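Hi all, long-time lurker, first post. I run a small reading group and we've been trying to get comfortable going from sequence to structure in the token notation. Rather than ask abstract questions, I figured I'd post a concrete chain and ask someone more experienced to write out its structure so we can walk through it together at our next meeting. Sequence below, copied exactly:
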Amino acid sequence: MTADPIVDLGFAAEHDVPIPYLARLRTYYQALGYGAPYVFAHYAEVPFHRLVKPLEDCRVALVTTAAPHRPELGDQGPGAPYNARAKFYAVYSDDTGRDHDLRIAHLAIDRQHTTAEDSGTWFPLPALRRAAAAGRIGKLAPRFHGAPTNRSQRVTLETDAPEILARCRQDQVDAALLVPT
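-- Answer (accepted) --
Happy to help. Here is the structure in token form:
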């Protein structure tokens, strides 16, 4: 046994704390001139439910907030600064059977602690293909879906989420992997 009881409990080091991106975003929105501080959605009860069948029997969809790369909109590559021009404002869908060049240049990306060089961390389509081939998931849905991040909870809840749900139902999806960036 060591002399320090805190070490014995397995606590994380004092510097090992969550990154305060919510506070950073609130400060940013206030600087843009928005009135009240931004209120992030926080459900008291999780609005999800258990799968009705095993994952290896499910058709799985990928939902991302990454944007299709459009070079004419400026730097969107790894390490790019925030680029509001690269935002998108409507749900999009594309084929999971081919590779895509999606990028992240969102406001919430923590550019101090990540380089965004590994697209598999924010768009794990190749990993999902491998999971389907290995039988860890039943099938990959024929399309993935892009969810806009336009800072409007109302638009997300009333427009974007129902549209993504409708597209998932069209694809007969049993489960969705949501990968926010």
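A couple of things your group might point at:
The longest helix spans residues 153-170.
The helical segments are 5-8, 21-31, 125-133, 153-170.
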